[in-house]
């Protein structure tokens, strides 16, 4: 599910960036300013979504490393 969310965030970011680039050159009225600002907000939301779901790749790297740590203080003492 995190992979789907990451891919969707990236896809929506580039789609809204495309429409932002098309619309930024011909801003004539207040409606155009509102539309462009909404596109900027959507891109910011997508960036936050990518940041939140980026741990998907880091978790996969960490799962490959197996580390065994022993601690003498946590071992049970034998009653001898």
Tell me about this structure.
With 80 residues, this protein is mainly alpha-helical. Helix content is 71%, strand content 0%. The chain contains three helices and no strands. Helix 1 (2-24) packs antiparallel against helix 2 (30-53). The protein is rod-shaped. The model has no long low-confidence stretch (mean pLDDT 83).
Question: What is this structure's SSE topology?
Answer:
Layout: H1 2-24, H2 30-53, H3 55-64
Structure, briefly:
The protein is mostly helical. Helices cover 71% and strands 0% of the residues. α1 packs antiparallel against α2.
Report the principal-axis shape: rod-shaped
Question: In terms of structural class, how would the helical and strand content be classed?
Answer: mainly alpha
**What share of residues are in beta strands?**
under 5%
Helix content: over 70%
Number of DSSP helices? 3
Extended strand count: 0
| N to C succession of SSEs | HHH
Q: Rg, please?
A: 24 Å
Average pLDDT value?
83
Main attributes of the structure:
single chain; 3 helices; 0% strand; rod-shaped; mainly alpha; 80 residues
């Amino acid at each position: 599910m995190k992979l789907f969310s990451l891919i969707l965030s990236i896809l929506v970011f580039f789609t809204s960036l495309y429409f932002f680039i098309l619309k930024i050159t011909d801003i004539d009225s207040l409606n155009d300013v509102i539309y462009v600002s909404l596109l900027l907000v959507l891109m910011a939301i997508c960036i936050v979504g990518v940041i939140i779901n980026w741990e998907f790749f880091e978790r996969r790297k960490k799962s490959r490393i197996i580390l065994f740590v022993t601690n003498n203080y946590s071992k049970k003492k034998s009653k001898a």
